[in-house]
Amino acid sequence: MLDDFKQNNNNKTIYGGRSRFLCILLGICSTSIHHVFTANPRLDTLYEWSQLEFDYQSDFDRQTDIALKTFIPGKPAPIDTDVYYSRDNGHNKIFITIPRFQPGIPVTLGTVSGKMYNGNPVITPYPSWDWHRNPEACSPNRMVSVYRIMVDKCDRLWVLDTGRFLETQTCPPQILAFDLVTNKIVHRYEIPSSLLESRSILVTPVVDVREKCSETFVYIADCQTFSIIVHDVKEGTFWKATDKTMYPYPNYGTFNIKGDSFDLMDGVLGMTLSPYVPGKDRKLYYHAMSSPTENWVFTSDLRNRTRFMHDPESSPEVFHTYRGERRTQSAAEAMDANGIMYYGLMSDVKIGCWNSDGDYGSRNYNDVIASDSVTLQFASGMKVVKNRKHFEELWILTSRFQKIATDSLDLRDKNFRILVGKVSDHVFGTVCEKKPSGGQHGGGTYGMIRP
């Protein structure tokens, strides 16, 4: 059944009013992994594009946007993905972000539809076309440029809009939240200019829901001022923390991926939270993209506004760096309910894992769960999602970003992908695996499954 799914994926309607994911059985045995990558099941390529296409009402509308250079085919490049499993499993959504750092991008946030255009899955603007038109106008219902998003356990989609159009700060950056049951906006705050600099680029939101949905904090990475902005949703307040651990490393500012080289000095970008345990503190893990290190801070310290409200650099003692290092840069990261972190390895073109019970970088706690020199290039979006069957899935967006950076993208190739796999299958046999009592490895299903 898995092979049938792979062969027929391009012809299937993945979700929509009457459609569902194919239920995929993963009964694949794996060879044990001891510090070297072996044959765990491959991540499934759920979608792939040579170029992004959008859900225009007619070909005339598409051609009009092309004539106006609102849409330049081949220019839009996705960065992130996240998944919403509806309560009845009938209104599931796969989100995709396309930041406007290049011209010709008509939509900055959408959902993957069941439609195809010239062999490419069609992206439907979210929540509607109106939110994406004329971004320079700074209308109340707007999205200018979105790098990353996050779906929380309260059925909300959090959208971080940088407000930057190409190289210009066109509108104030903002944090938005949509009720995914109604698709209506439920939260909107513009980020105070006092916390920003002219070079600020807000790239990653991480949502920390406490005991109740009303008690939510959002941690926002600014990769160019090397800081984390904290938003208390209930109080409507913001503050900023800055530390040397959020800076890029000059020796890691040159990226080499499959023979292409480009320079990028991005600071803090990858962020994820330790599992939530009532009554216990959480860690926010983070790293600069152009660095080899992983860092952490207790969220109780970040949430303490009085620490930082007068001086963002007031508390260097609360930020920590692990001694171990990666061999290469990494962008996005995500952590599962067992405290296993997943992250991309840029030059290696692999997906790594780390058991956070042990030392970062240690061969006893770090491993590789997937290796594919074609499909795993530049993993810029990564989420761990629990489906309605209570299985955790790893969702990854990859791209040939190095070709975009070097202006050598070939539209005859498959350039962008969304991949997915069941977490327990991919960590099985690695040093990252936490074995349940009895030592049994669970099989079962994953995907958007009909209840």
Q: Trace the largest sheet across and list its strands.
A: 3-7-6-5-4
Main beta sheet strand tally, sense and closure = 5 strands, mixed
| Rounded radius of gyration (Å) | 21 Å
What oligomeric assembly is this protein in?
single chain
* Portion in helices: under 10%
Give the helix/strand class: mainly beta
Poorly predicted runs are 1-38, 437-451
* Overall 3D shape: globular
The average pLDDT score comes to 89
Strand tally:
31
Q: What is the helix tally?
A: 6
Strand content: 35-45%
Distance between the termini: 19 Å
Family: Belongs to the major royal jelly protein family.
Keywords: Glycoprotein, Membrane, Secreted, Signal, Transmembrane, Transmembrane helix
Subcellular location: Secreted
Pfam families: MRJP (PF03022)
Please specify the SSE layout and strand pairing.
Layout: H1 2-8, E1 24-25, E2 44-49, E3 53-54, H2 59-67, E4 80-84, E5 93-97, E6 109-117, E7 120-125, E8 146-151, E9 156-161, E10 164-165, E11 168-169, E12 174-179, E13 184-190, E14 202-209, E15 216-222, E16 227-232, E17 237-242, E18 254-257, E19 260-263, E20 268-273, E21 283-288, E22 295-298, H3 299-302, H4 305-308, E23 320-321, E24 333-335, E25 340-345, E26 350-355, E27 366-371, E28 379-386, E29 392-399, H5 401-405, E30 416-422, H6 423-427, E31 445-446
Parallel strand pairs: 3-7
Antiparallel strand pairs: 1-31, 2-30, 4-5, 5-6, 6-7, 8-9, 9-12, 10-11, 12-13, 14-15, 15-16, 16-17, 18-19, 20-21, 21-22, 22-23, 24-25, 25-26, 26-27, 28-29, 29-30
Key words describing this protein structure:
451 residues; mainly beta; five-stranded mixed β-sheet; four-stranded antiparallel β-sheet; 8% helix; globular; disordered N terminus; disordered C terminus; Quino_amine_DH_bsu; transmembrane; MRJP/yellow-related
